[in-house]
Write a structure and sequence with these properties.
By secondary structure, the protein is mostly helical. It contains five helices and no strands. The chain has a single domain, classed as 434 Repressor (Amino-terminal Domain) (Orthogonal Bundle). Helix 1 crosses helix 3 and helix 2 packs across helix 3. InterPro entries: Cro/C1-type_HTH (IPR001387), Lambda_DNA-bd_dom_sf (IPR010982).
């Protein structure tokens, strides 16, 4: 499983979605989404479970996959 940053980057690219567009869909501020996409869940700003659920819904991903990605260290691929 990819880490959260990789999952967000790949999914946003596939869906042709910018951090700004994702922010508009979720209500999460754009700078937070950029940090999540860059640093994953191990960065200086940690996503809440509510934010992870909102990201999963907006990107049409299974919540379990997003939660698993949030627990996977960066650079670790299964």
């Amino acid at each position: 499983m990819a880490d959260l940053g990789e999952l967000l980057q790949v999914t946003m690219r596939r869906r042709h979605m910018t951090p700004q567009a994702l922010a508009e869909r979720t209500g999460i501020r754009t700078p937070r989404i950029r940090v999540f996409a860059q640093d994953g869940a191990q960065g200086p700003i940690l996503p809440t479970e509510k934010e992870l659920a909102e990201l999963a819904a907006a990107l049409r991903l299974p919540l379990a996959d997003v939660l698993d990605a949030a627990r996977t260290p960066a650079g670790t691929m299964a």
